Amino acid sequence: MASSHCFAPFVFLLILVGCSGRPFYPLPSKLADGDRQPLQTSRPYNIAHRGSNGEIPEETAAAYMRAIEEGADFIETDILSSKDGVLICFHDVTLDDTTDVAEHKEFSNRKRTYEVQGDNTTGFFTVDFTLEELKSLRVKQRYPFRDQQYNGKYTIITFEEFISIALDAPRVVGIYPEIKNPVLINQHVKWADGKRFEDRFVGTLKKYGYKGSYMSKDWLKQPAFIQSFAPTSLIYVSNLTDLPKIFLIDDITIPTQDTNQSYWEITSDAYLDFIKDYVVGIGPWKDTVVPVVNNYLQTPTDLVSRAHAHDLQVHPYTYRNENSFLHFNFHQDPYAEYDYWINEIGVDGLFTDFTGSLHNYQEWSSFKESDDKNASNLLHKIASMVSSYGRA
């Protein structure tokens, strides 16, 4: 899964023009399907969480392109909406933490307080800004301990721009969009045709040719998972598309967004048996799969084995390299964490902020038959060289 050399220059060009007047994004690739390396399906999926956001500010074109360059199988994004109904790639329902909105005096009167998942939240909400206004903002790194050099260089991108990045990749790269906070979006954004957020979301995927059940020919051509924390949204979109869906599961203290169900209910065997008719897997927060006390791992739960027994995949989130996120058991070594989750817990995919690290781990830990043959040939050559010295 080596990255194409022709892709890297484009990433640097994108960085160069980051502050230029108009967006600079590739159009969908015109390459024939047979010319592109297919999606790898032989090992757990490397899911680039909001792009390679450990290096470049999240949900930006540059973060997604860096993730592709580094070997991501899927690029993951959160989908929200602008005031004028354009679907955008952004994680928080408010703009405060990852944009420079506070520096724009023309928007100082836009701060609002809305109920979000049962709590009152105050900030600058995406649903109160048009796409043109959102495009005037610049994105910044969420965490102060990460590289700050790209702050202010990139804009918010649309769902369609995100799709174009995936389709233009030099190999087949899947997309993993989330129906983000559908209750809030459907409350505050009204489309002229009477459609709801989920309709627009699926309609965009269909527009660009995304279709097909998991591992079907159509799906392998343009792979996509649809994810959401909202079970009713997943059930609703199951009537709109046969693309595979992933039910996201939050902390044990947080109920579902739209049905107010507890963690214990939605991870019960009865519920897994129910939801498997609509989804192909679950995406749990990793600390609910293996509980943590005082930053030490405890005995793993049986959630993964029970999900597998219901023929459901498990794609936990989120894996991060920094010491502040690594549990003490891994001795500040992210590769030890990947090894534990892949080989001991047995997950089927991992959401990571550091796509390159997971890709390197999987490449280095893969043992192929060709590697065995090459190693054997090398040993024979060394033996031959040593024996010649013995005869001298």
TrEMBL record:
What Gene Ontology terms for biological process does this UniProt record contain? Answer: glycerol metabolic process; lipid metabolic process
Q: Domain GP-PDE, which positions? A: 44-362
| Reactions catalysed according to its record | a sn-glycero-3-phosphodiester + H2O = an alcohol + sn-glycerol 3-phosphate + H(+)
Record keywords, A-Z: Glycerol metabolism, Glycoprotein, Hydrolase, Signal
- State the signal peptide span: 1-21
The name on file for this protein is glycerophosphodiester phosphodiesterase
Family as reported in the entry's similarity comment: Belongs to the glycerophosphoryl diester phosphodiesterase family.
> Which EC class is the enzyme in?
hydrolase
Q: Which domain of life is it from?
A: Eukaryota
| InterPro entries noted in UniProt | GP_PDE_dom, PLC-like_Pdiesterase_TIM-brl
What is one term from the GO cellular component aspect held by the record? vacuole
Residues annotated as coiled-coil are none
Q: Recall the GO molecular function terms of this protein's record.
A: glycerophosphodiester phosphodiesterase activity
> Any idea of its EC number?
3.1.4.46
Organism of derivation: Prunus yedoensis var. nudiflora
